[in-house]
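Annex B, item 7. Sequence and structure tokens for protein A, then protein B.
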Amino acid sequence: MASGNPNQLAAQLRPLLARLVRKLRKLSPANEQLSQSERSVLVLLDQHDYLLSAELAVMEKMTPQSMGQLLQHLFQQGLINRTASPDDKRKIHISLSAAGKELMQRVRKERNEWLSKAISEVCTKEEQAILQAAIGPLSKLVEYE
């Protein structure tokens, strides 16, 4: 059934993946009070021990001023910590607070539970095997620059 046409595959895959991502975002009540940019920053902080505000701004393609406002909001919500660098007191390390880590775990758990339930209820064992096999190629797409 595969057409071998990458353009056609891309045109079919892109909207489905976009819809799945939007659905997963909406399904997480724990994540509702945050903007997409705030959620993205929390994900980055979850992947690193700490980052500098300037690093986050570059990663998120934001101005330093906008990142400063975003970080202030996350700090006010108790989701991040700010710690002076032991090497250079002018640099502030931004990291997830205990509440931020708990939020990330809760969001991840909610999304995993929904996706697991959906897979088990609507996909046959053969379809589940196809999804498992697709993880490798999809991972390559995510890493592609």
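Protein B:
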Amino acid sequence: MINLSSKFKSRLLPVAALGAVLAVAAPLVAQTVEEPDNSGLDLPKDIAVFGSRDPNIRKATAIVNGTIITATDVDQRLALVLAANGGDEKVPEEEKERLRLQVLRNLIDETLEIQEAAAQKIEVPAAEINQTMARVAANVRRNPTEFAAYLKSQGSSAESLRRQIQGEIAWRRVLSRRVEPFVNVSEEEVNAIIARLNASKGATEYHIGEIFLSSTPEAMPATQANAERIIDQIRKGGSFQAYARQFSEASTAAVGGDLGWVRGEQLPEQLATAAAQMGNGMLSPPIAVPGGYSIIALIDKRQVLTADPRDAVLALKQLTITFPAGSTQATAAPKVEAFANAVQTIQGCGKVAEVAKTVGADVVDNDQVKIRDLPPVLQDMMLELQIGQASRPFGSLAEGVRALVLCGRDDPQSSSDPSFEQIYSQIEEDRVNRRARRYLRDLRRDAVIEYR
């Protein structure tokens, strides 16, 4: 996923799904509703649905206050999402259709944001969009021309991404002018949070990603099924951040569902219970919460205001042995066993080159490696090692079997308290996000949107 996140998390609740086109001349179909009407809409007891709709026809275009969103706009933006999920061929057709409708909703919101910026006489210069495009291209090690060619090869375009950048910058500036000046945070509020942090020193904090799907009580089974389909796609290799950006109805959707670091008491009870039972990198099943379902991913966890051993910085030597193409477990076993026995004889990094020579291993130095940045299984191994010891072998026949030798460790200092300014900014951001959500809801309510 190309991350264009900002201080303001702007991709909020999506608009309503596409409505059916009624054909007045078609036959009349009667439907009786016996349950009480709790909607507050004063609906009739006997509902007659006029017309018919071919479920195989979906025209994903719209006109938003006179601005046309074409099928090409939807296809090109969808291509960015598919690229983030491993490519077009890895996403089932049914999933693509669901993504297509969500992309259309996001484009409608984006159009409303750009229109509101124009109404406020807020402009985003082309030079600023070009600078952002250049930064995004640099993140994937391409120049702007190469990046444009890459986007085209994925079925998207540079113009589609430029419009997304324009929408996000424009919306940030709208919020800066129309929302942020009216958000107040008192010194007493910040000091109260600092006091609570100090009181909870040593408690567990979780770094969590969330996808929230809203639902009415009647639609909960369908929403749960939708959540399970999303989980299935993520477990098959889809990007959690991409799905959060397209499907989540929380204000964190614009930053890939990232909630940041939170303590259990800051989460709904259902999410706190699930997080406490999860390991790093795990994905939860659908969790019923007030108003819908949440899917959470546990990115990491730590102790509040306490040094985490996984923040230690290591100096390592990596030994690697490789195998000819077509090798099997049986044919490779003697070499792997010899390698395992050899690395366990290492007593200090000064002996690494000598041992590597005896087993035909390559050696690479790796300094400044944080334990936290290693895969979870290697984190556990490295935490147990003393200076000069080697890890157990790991890897595969295709990519090589490796071992890490610990040559040095810089242990972390005690975690410092968050500053007054950091806490102030977090509170302010949360309040801006909530007001932004209402702002966009009002724009949707007042918009003239014609689905084509």
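Comment on protein B: The CA atoms of residues 326 and 374 lie 29 Å apart.
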